[in-house]
Design goal:
By secondary structure, the chain is mainly alpha-helical. It has 3 domains: about 1-70, no CATH class; about 70-100; about 105-140. The protein is built from 4 helices and 2 strands; from the N terminus they run E-E-H-H-H-H. It has helices at about 70-85, 90-100, 105-120, 125-140; strands at about 1-5, 25-30. It has a two-stranded antiparallel sheet. Helix 3 packs across helix 4 (about 125-140). It is flat, with a radius of gyration of 23 Å.
């Protein structure tokens, strides 16, 4: 990763002052041992999945613009479940993770959204949608 002249932590989504050369890239690059890395983590695996892999206050902007994602949480659930069952991960498990559509964020907010929709059910035009909302609403109570 190239170095900037001014080495301050910053979020790469920030707009830097282009009227000054203080934020320009230099020809120097960071050594590998200066960049975030992990080797043989205690839990036995890493999950990236466009997930934030560095702390909030990193010195270098390596992945600092990513945020923790529900996708990474879901992968964690699957892996932890597999570990707890005593089974080893297989190629089929990896394929299953790639194709998984579970969403931990949706799971968390559903209990808040369904009652709101159920209280405004008359705004739904499709009778099938109304029935689905009512069924989900009953499941939550």
């Amino acid at each position: 990763m190239p170095r900037r002249k001014l080495e301050i932590p910053f979020n790469s989504l920030d707009v830097l002052d282009g009227t000054s050369s203080q934020f320009d890239w230099t020809d120097a690059v960071y050594r590998l041992d200066e960049l975030p890395h992990v080797l043989n983590p205690a839990k036995g695996y890493i999950i990236t999945a466009n997930n934030r892999v560095v702390l909030d206050h990193v010195r270098h902007d390596a992945g600092a613009t990513f945020m923790s994602t529900a996708r990474a949480e879901r992968i964690e659930e699957i892996i932890v479940g597999k570990i707890k069952s005593g089974a080893k991960m297989t190629v089929a498990d990896m394929i299953s993770i790639q194709q998984d559509t579970g969403d931990t964020m949706a799971r968390r907010i559903t209990s808040f959204i369904i009652p709101i929709v159920a209280n405004n059910i008359d705004l739904l035009k499709n009778e099938e949608d109304k029935l689905k909302v009512l069924e989900l609403s009953r499941e939550l109570t």
